[in-house]
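WARN no homologs supplied; continuing
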Amino acid sequence: MEEKSILLEVIGDTMENRIIDFLIEGVGIDYTKKDIAGGCDISRPTLYKILPKLIKQGIIKPTRKIGRVQMYSLNAENEKVKALIKLEEFLLKKSFDEVEKQKVKIRV
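OK structure emitted
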């Protein structure tokens, strides 16, 4: 897996958080289990254990079926998800502000 996201640095790099982070990055897009496992760098058997729990908590929702393949996406209406999206927005803004400060220091 590439460098950890800002969100994972703060909330911790667990399998569940990797899945949520991956789906936050692609909010509004639905994915197959294979896509999610590949995007999170976790095995499919591990995903199959975790996914039902995240669905039960309302964090992930099944969206549509393409043939026999079930698609999943982040449930942006879930309060926990809303809070995590806000946290990521805050962290990204803070990170960009730090980069801008560094640019200003370099110019001076």
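The chain has one domain: 6-107.
OK
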